[in-house]
Amino acid sequence: MSNQAHVIKPRLPEPPPSVDQLLAAVRAAVEEIKAKDVVEIDVRGKTSVADHLVIASGTSTRHVKSIADEVVKFAKNLGAMPLGVEGEREAEWVLVDLGDVIVHVMLPRVREFYALERLWSVGDQKPGVDADEGDEAE
User: Fold this and answer.
1) Could you list the residue ranges forming a coiled coil in this record (predicted)?
2) DSSP conformation class of 136
3) Which comes out higher in pLDDT, residue 9 or 67?
């Protein structure tokens, strides 16, 4: 009987996926699992933590977890290992950190409470332009 241990060494992809490739993988993953109200926010120049945030909603805790799992799966298919995944246990808000892209998957009530879109888009809108302006046409 052989006592040789099998050692698995994690490897970073050469070269690592670009931000555009990561965003495309995240878009495909959230579309595949039918996430709701997906929003991408460019946060370059606002924080050094990431370049882009993707925020999506799930219809239940199971859906939120499934969306986050799909994002991780699509990222791994690119050769990108998530730096961290937080909140899977409760699955009301799951954060998937892909480095330059951070994905927040939330239940609608949690998303409304924390209002990340408003927080990260302050100052992006031109003065006098209402974000809901186009919704009143009907």
Assistant:
1) none
2) G
3) 67
In a domain, 134, yes or no: no
The enclosing H or E element of 101 equals strand 101-106
pLDDT confidence of 54, banded at 50, 70, 90? very high
> Which residue has 């954060």 as its token pair?
95
- Parallel, antiparallel, or unpaired for β 101-106 and 52-57? parallel
d(CA 79, CA 84): 15
Cα distance between residue 131 and residue 63, in whole Å: 28
Per-residue DSSP letter, 96: E
pTM: 0.79
HEC-encoded secondary structure of 12-79: CCCCCCCHHHHHHHHHHHHHHCCCEEEEEEECCCCCCCCCEEEEEECCCHHHHHHHHHHHHHHHHHHC
Spatial neighbors of 41 by CB under 8 A, at least 6 apart, are: 52, 53, 54, 55, 116, 117, 120, 121
User: Looking at the domain assignment, is residue 7 inside a domain?
Assistant: no
